Structure formats: structure tokens, C-alpha cells
Amino acid sequence: MKIARIIVDVPSSQTNRLFDYKVPERLEDVVQIGMRVIIPFGPRKIMGFVLELTSDSNVDKLKNIQDVMDLTPVLTPELVEVGKWIAETTLCFYVSAFQAMLPQVLKAKYEKELWLLAEPEELTPSLEQLFGGRGVIPYEELKEHNLSYSAIQKGIQEGLMEVHYNVNSKETKKKETYITPGVPIEQLEEMYVDIPSQAKKQKQIISYFLEKEREEVRQKDLLGTLATTRASLKPLLDKGLLKEVHKEVYRDPYQNREYEPTTPFALTDEQSAAISPIHKSISTKQHEPFLLHGVTGSGKTEIYLQSIQHVLNNGREAIVLVPEIALTPQMVERFKGRFGSRVAVLHSALSAGEKYDEWRKVQRKEVQVVVGARSAIFAPFENIGIIIIDEEHESSYKQEDYPRYHARDVAIRRGEYHQCPIVLGSATPTLESFARAKKGVYTLLSLHKRMNEASMPEVERVDMREELHAGNRSMFSRSLYDKMQERLQKGEQTVLFLNRRGYSTFVMCRDCGHVMECPHCDIALTYHRRNERLKCHYCSYEEGMPDKCPSCESDSIRFFGTGTQKVEESLQHMLPEARIIRMDVDTTRRKGAHERLLTKFGNQEADILLGTQMIAKGLDFPNVTLVGVLAADSLLHLPDFRSSEKTFQLLTQVSGRAGRHKLPGEVVVQSYTPEHYSIDLASQYDYESFFQKEMNMRKMFQYPPYYFLTLLTVSHPNHLYTMDVTQKMSQFLREQLSERSVILGPTPSPLTRIKDRYRYQVMIKYRNEPMLIKVMNRLFQLYEDDVQNKDLQVTIDFQPYQMM
DNA sequence: AGCACGCCGACT
DNA sequence: GTCGGCGTGCTC
């Protein structure tokens, strides 16, 4: 007897284990590991993932698998193992890990229906009204009718009706109809003669196939070329001369685009030296992690491309991860240009259907290269030859919601399985990675020089306090203003960077200092100019703009801070002749808007590109010779131990946008604390000194990479209860963990209240804590009951990036 | 997570 | 009595 061991689609601690099911005879050759199946579970039917196939079970009364949902497994055996590992190391449910690895559309959808078994006359009047002459009704309709639950229950007991559970998958495959001869060509010729002469169009269609012995034609094309309709095709199909074939076509968002084919560039000496260890690792099938540290514009991408070429020549596959924000058409073009249709692209701007189609291309091995954001690390390849993570320092590689995995860790795990190299590339590696490279855990490859012998642009730091003392109250320093004007005269372009986070537009009373805050989240509300309303970014609470201060009744309540819109207005006022493009969430919301604006800027239809984080990366415009950073220190003062590192990374990235080609570039960094080491060293492009300095700070304050962090967050609507539970948990951790570990807290979370829930946290700092996962599991068990029945929420984040 | 079962108070 | 509230325990 064939038994399948299954993870059921019920994310709860009690069901987070394998359940055994019999494989019915008709499915014996169909069911495979990694497949989604439909199974009866209690009174209902749900989806489950087959993880194991065996022949015996400890459970005596087994139910049958009802049906399969896939014909090809959606998870390869390797990915099943990866999913289990994610669940066990990030403490999430198995089913949640598997869901996170698959396209959204493969998530099961459930619906409940009520089926009428008896004749309508046998029903009570209220039930008869409920069915209204129909045989099946959606279960939800019960709520609309004023029927008691027991009346339904009674009806079911009496056998008048029945509850049906349906399991569906949302995936749809786009199909296209093709027409092909239904009989051999000689026979078709004979039958052609028999077509009555008045059926002119039918004869035309058949001769179309006979002429060039055509095998298969798209129906759309056929009817188009012959200027006819399906009316004349139909009889031929009915008589069997021709037949229809339905073929799956992919929704290809890039299909109407042409990519300029590119050929490999000759590598510089530095590049050659960096690429040869990677090639060696590919050829010898040795797993090895590399850290490729190369200044902006040093040609890291070319190294990726040539390494991938080497992998493809070996008949293997490649995964390239790029931060979401850098996954621009320019970036895609570079890969499609080199590898054409062998590339699939996976990122969040695609529709669910498009994402599924790209994923299917990978599943069917129709492509060998995947370029995508974080979740592309789960591409179902089975013969991976290289995994590349570009801009390795980007925090978006860590998923900030459940399951909290880091793509870099998954990459290394997959690299070990496939025995292939992992390349982490960055101009500003995370301290963690650079420290590992120094220790020899990663192999360090360095590119110090820019290509085209371009030099890094000169950086001028402007002290905005001095500007104010000199009577300049505008948001542009005199120096930046002069330089922008100069660019306008010379017909060169400027990129202005504004860090939005530091510029949030909050509303404050100038008389008493009262700040408008969200009543549920304890954070400042953001002023939205368009409809004059105040919104909370965390819970979407909103209210109108007050005309009097609610605290002191003064009418000098105003909004403060600056958004890109405000900067644009001021800029237009100062430089009326400048053509400005603003890029922020508002102007790029519509599909394709991002690309259109960049193309416009690339075609020099604008002089100044003003934007937020989204323009900090990957842009490469030859005519840009000036980059302005409006508030370099706005990131520095966030409550985050990585703020210096983030500032250094951001300034380096932004500076890299200028003078990448023939024209030399210049950078102006405006700041209220220009002497801070991260601003100072970024302006000198001195990564090494920054690394040393920041490492000292981290050592002193016991932060990563010297210590590991784990963040435990507890939330509940009741304030006292939350504090109490968090207190007990921290006590438990102090008792269970080693004495050398530091347990901070409980402290209120930086966002103390979100959606009417109080949040407290405990931070654990440790160097070596092999029992941590076990201890955490035990902690979860202790509070399982409260989580299930008392609305308690407990989240655990190993190696958190965001402390909130 | 659902869903059934069972115990309890509130009502026709 | 019976209806419906909620706590408890189970799902191969």
C-alpha cells in the first residue's frame, strides 16, 4: 500500500506536522513528492503538500488522498528540504514556508457550498426561500438570510441537504487556439476535391495548409491572412479535416520589446583576476561563497554576465538576485541583451499571472537564467551552476514579514546542495559580509578601479548650518544652486536625491509644539496635500487637517518637513527654465511610469531628475555630471544601530550616479553634521576606513557582526497583560540561555501601539547560543494556549534588520 | 484554522 | 425544555 506523508494547509502549531494518507490506486503513478493534493481533513477538504512517500504508517484508519492539484510537482525534492529548513530555522509553520516559496496563484482557495438533495417542496418555507429554486448555493448566503444555524443542521441531519467543500487553485494558463490538419496531407488533398465549389472560403483554408504543407497555424493568424471568420472554419473542424489544438502561451511582459544583443566585453586585468576563481569554482563544481567588492562603475555586472555564460556553457542554470528597487528595465535589458529568451524575470511589478508564467518557464526548464528580487531565490531549477546576489548589502533581501528568511542564507544553502559558487556583489558590503571575507569564510574579490578609466566624482560637503547663518533659508545651498545653474547652461544633467524618511511631512503647532499623532499607533501623522488630510502610514487611519491646535487652540498649526513635491516647487521657482522630472511613489504608481520617466530623462528631455531612494541605484546616464544630496544626515538619526552603515551605503551609491562615462562628475552633499565619520568617509570613498571605524563601534556596543541579535516581539490589546507576558518571557530566557548572552528588556517597541495592540520586545545579544532555537521553541510551547485562545501574538526575528 | 461537541445561562 | 454563547480538543 502506498502512503503519502503530507503537510496540511492549516497554519497552526497543532497541525504543523505530517499527516498520513492512503494513495488510491488510480493515483499511484501520479502522486509524487512536492505535489499539491486535495485531502479530506476532519469534515472539510483542504490542500496539502506531499513531503514523503512510504508504504507503512502508525495510524490505523487512513483516509484517501482525494485528488492531485498538479501533474508536475511544484516543489523539487531539494526545495522541499529548503522549505523544511526555513521553517525550522526561522520558526515558522512548514506550510507557510512552502507557500512563501511558490507564486501567489498556487495558494489554495476554499469555498463552501450548500447542496440541495431533496425536492424543494420538502423544505420548510424559510429553507425554500434560501435556495430560491437553485440546487446549489454559496454557504455565505446563509448570513444574509435570517436563518438559525440549527435549522440548517437539522436539514443536514434529515438528509435534505449537504455541505460541500471545494478546493481550487487560482492559477490560470493563458491558452491560444492553433489549427492543424486532422488527417495526413495526402488524405487532405483528396478531401479538398470533395468540398463543394460554392464553399470558396473553405477551399481557401484547406489550400492554405496544402500549399506549404503547413503543420500548425495560430487560428488568429489564419483567419487574419485569409480575411475570413470562424464561420467558414467551423464546418472543416466538424468534418475532421482540421482540428483545434489549445496551447499554453505565456503572458510575457517583455515580448514586445527588442533587446540589443550584446557581446562580452574584454575584461580589464582587475576583472580577469576577479573572474577566474569564480570560473574555477564553476568548472570544478565546488561550492564557494565569494564577496565581490567593487566600486560603483567597476563593471561587476560584466563579471556576472561572463560567469553566467560559463555556467550555461556547462549546461547548468543561474539565479541572479537584484534588489527590487534596482530591477529596472535597464537592468533587465543587460541580461536579456546577453542571453535573450533564456532569461526569465521575476519581480513585484508583474501581475500575479505574469509572475506565474515566468515561474512556469523555469519549472519547465525553458529558461536557464532567472533575474529577480528576493523570492527568485526559490526558482525551481534542478541544476544550478551559480547564484549571484547583486547589491548584497540591501536590506530587502531579508523578508521582514513571516517567514523571516534571508535570501543570502537560502542562497548559501542551495549552493551547498548544487555544489556551485555564490557571488555576493557590492560597492559597500555589509559589515557582516566584509568581516567574513576578512576571516576567509568568503573569498574576497576586489575591483578598485572604474571602467573607462573614469575617476570617482569629487564630493563637496556643505554645512547647512552655515548656510542658515549666512542668511540662506532655502533648501538648496548656494554651491548646489550655482552648480545646477552651470549644468543648465552647459546642457548637462543633474540628479537630486532626497531621502524621504527624513523628510516626512508632519503637522506641528508653532505655539505649543503639539504634534498630530495617530490615536492607534503613537506615531506622527503624515500630511497629504492632495486632499488636505492626515494619514497614518502604519494603520491607514486618517483624519482632516485641523485649523486649530487641539491642545492650545492656537491657529498657527502647520505642516512641517518637505516632500519631493515641495522640493520640486521650490526648485522650479529658483530655476524657472529647468525641466524637472520628479520620481517618487506618487509619480511612479502607474504601471510602466517608472520606465517612461527614466527613458524621458535618458533622452535628455529633462535637466533635473528629482527623486527618493528609487533613483539611488543602478541608473547609468552618461550626461549626468552633478548629483545633489539634499539631507545626508536624515538617515543618521533613526533609532537603528545600522544608521551609520546605511548612510555610508546610500551616499556611496548616490555618488556613483555621476560621471560614469566621458564627462567628469561632481557631488554635493548637504548636511547639518557633515563632520560625521560616515559622511566624511563616504565623501572620500574610503570603505576600508569606514569598515574599521564602524567595526570598533559595533564591538564597543556589542552589535553585529560581533554579536548576533534576536528580537522577540509580544503584542496584545491589553497593556498590562502584554508587559506581564513579556516580563515572564525575558525571565525564562535569562534562566534558559547561557550567562554570556545579554537579554535586554522588556522594553516598549519603537512603535508601541499598532492597530490598538500594545507591543513589547526583548532583544537577545549573543555570540554563541547553540540551544537558542530549542529554547525559543519551548517558549512558544509555553504560550501556545494564550496565542490560540487569548489573542496573544509572539513573533521572533533572528538577525532582524528592522527593530520595529 | 475550522469545526464539532459539550457545558452553561437565558429565554419561549 | 431548547437556543445559542463560548471553552476544549481534534483533524491522518
From TrEMBL:
It is an enzyme of class 5 (isomerase). GO terms for cellular component: primosome complex. Its cofactor is Zn(2+). Zn(2+) 2 binds at C518, C521, C536, C539. GO terms for molecular function: 3'-5' DNA helicase activity; ATP binding; DNA binding; hydrolase activity; zinc ion binding. Residues 281-447 form the Helicase ATP-binding domain. Gene3D superfamilies: P-loop containing nucleotide triphosphate hydrolases, PriA, 3(prime) DNA-binding domain. Residues 544-712 form the Helicase C-terminal domain. It catalyses: ATP + H2O = ADP + phosphate + H(+); Couples ATP hydrolysis with the unwinding of duplex DNA by translocating in the 3'-5' direction. Its EC number is 5.6.2.4. Pfam families: DEAD (PF00270), Helicase_C (PF00271), PriA_3primeBD (PF17764), PriA_C (PF18074), Zn_ribbon_PriA (PF18319). Binds 2 zinc ions per subunit. SUPFAM superfamilies: P-loop containing nucleoside triphosphate hydrolases. GO terms for biological process: DNA recombination; DNA replication initiation; DNA replication, synthesis of primer; double-strand break repair. InterPro entries: DEAD/DEAH_box_helicase_dom, Helicase_ATP-bd, Helicase_C-like, P-loop_NTPase, PriA, PriA_3primeBD, PriA_3primeBD_sf, PriA_C. Component of the replication restart primosome. PANTHER family: PRIMOSOMAL PROTEIN N. NCBIfam families: priA, PRK05580.1-3. Initiates the restart of stalled replication forks, which reloads the replicative helicase on sites other than the origin of replication. Recognizes and binds to abandoned replication forks and remodels them to uncover a helicase loading site. Promotes assembly of the primosome at these replication forks. Belongs to the helicase family. PriA subfamily. This is Replication restart protein PriA. It comes from Pontibacillus yanchengensis.
